[in-house]
Amino acid sequence: MKNSLGICIFCGLIVFVQPLDLVKNRMQLSGQGSKAREYKTSFHAVTSILRNEGIRGIYTGLSAGLLRQATYTTTRLGIYTVLFERMSKADGTPPNFFMKALIGMTAGATGAFVGTPAEVALIRMTADGRLPADQRRGYTNVFNALIRITREEGVSTLWRGCVPTMARAVVVNAAQLASYSQSKQALLDSGYFRDDILCHFCASMISGLVTTAASMPVDIVKTRIQNMRMIDGKPEYKNGLDVLVKVIRKEGFFSLWKGFTPYYARLGPHTVLTFIFLEQMNKFYKIYFLDS
C-alpha cells in the first residue's frame, strides 16, 4: 500500500519535473561534437523550446517519463523493501548505514535495468524537437517508440546505455546517502543547528548538490549513448569511455556538467523530500516501537 502511494506521488511529480528533464536532456545534447553550444543557459533553452515548439513542446516525452517512473520506481521500491526487511534483525532493528547504502544501490541498479527501455524512449522523444524535420524520429507516444525501436533497430536497442544507466543509479544512491549523512553531522557539529526539519532540509540540499555534481558525467554518457544514431553503419560511440573522451576533447571538460541547473532543480527537491520523510519515519519508529 505504501509503495503504491509512493509510486502515485512520483508519477504525479513527473507532470511538474518533465520540463526540467527535457531541458536537461537538450542541454546535454547541445553542441555535440563542438564547443559551439545550441543553448547558452537553461533559461535560453526554455525560451527557445517554447518559441519553436509551443507549450506542448515542453512536455514532449511525458508518456515515457510516466512509464519510466512506473517501471523504475516500482522495481526499486519493491526490491528495497524486500531486502530491507530481510536484512533487519528478528527484533525489528533495521540494518546499519552501510547495509542500507548497499541495499539502496542494489535496488537502484536493478530498477534502472528494468526502466532502461522507457529511459531510451524518453531521451529520444525529448531530443527530437531539436533536430531538422527530416531527421526527427517522430514517436507519437512511449508505446509507439518502444514498438518502432524494436522493429527498426532490434529489441536489444531498448537496453542501449543500460550500463551507464545502472551506474548512474548506483552513484546517485551512494552519493545521496553518504553526502547527506556527512552534511547533517557537520551542521550539527557547527552548533547552529538542532536535529530538526531545518537541519534535514539544509543537509538534503547540500546532498542534492553533491549528488548532482557526482552523477552528471555518468548521466551525459547515458544520454548520448541512448540518443546516438548509426553513422555509415557504425555506432556514433563505442562505449561510455568513448563518450567521455569525445566530449572532453571536442566540447571541453566542463561540458560533462551541461544541464546542471535543471538537473539540480529536479534532483534537489527529490532529495529533500526523500530524507525528510526518511527522518520522520525513523523518528516515529523510535517513539512508537523502540520506546514503547
From TrEMBL:
Transmembrane among keywords: yes
Q: What start and end residues bound the annotated signal peptide?
A: 1-19
Q: Report how it sits in the membrane.
A: Multi-pass membrane protein
Q: GO molecular-function annotation terms? A: alpha-ketoglutarate transmembrane transporter activity; antiporter activity
Q: Which GO terms describe its biological process?
A: lipid transport
GO cellular component terms, alphabetically, are: membrane
Tell me, in one coarse class, where this protein mainly resides. membrane
* Regions annotated as coiled coil: none
| Catalysed transformations (reactions) | maleate(in) + 2-oxoglutarate(out) = maleate(out) + 2-oxoglutarate(in); succinate(in) + 2-oxoglutarate(out) = succinate(out) + 2-oxoglutarate(in); oxaloacetate(in) + 2-oxoglutarate(out) = oxaloacetate(out) + 2-oxoglutarate(in); malonate(in) + 2-oxoglutarate(out) = malonate(out) + 2-oxoglutarate(in)
Q: Where are the Solcar repeats?
A: 3-86, 95-186, 195-284
Query: What InterPro entries does UniProt report for this protein, alphabetically?
Result: MCP_dom_sf, MCP_transmembrane, Mito_Metabolite_Transporter
Keywords on this record?
Answer: Antiport, Lipid transport, Membrane, Repeat, Signal, Transmembrane, Transmembrane helix, Transport
Note the subunit structure. Answer: Interacts with SMIM26.
Function, please?
Catalyzes the transport of 2-oxoglutarate (alpha-oxoglutarate) across the inner mitochondrial membrane in an electroneutral exchange for malate. Can also exchange 2-oxoglutarate for other dicarboxylic acids such as malonate, succinate, maleate and oxaloacetate, although with lower affinity. Contributes to several metabolic processes, including the malate-aspartate shuttle, the oxoglutarate/isocitrate shuttle, in gluconeogenesis from lactate, and in nitrogen metabolism. Maintains mitochondrial fusion and fission events, and the organization and morphology of cristae.
Protein name (record): Mitochondrial 2-oxoglutarate/malate carrier protein
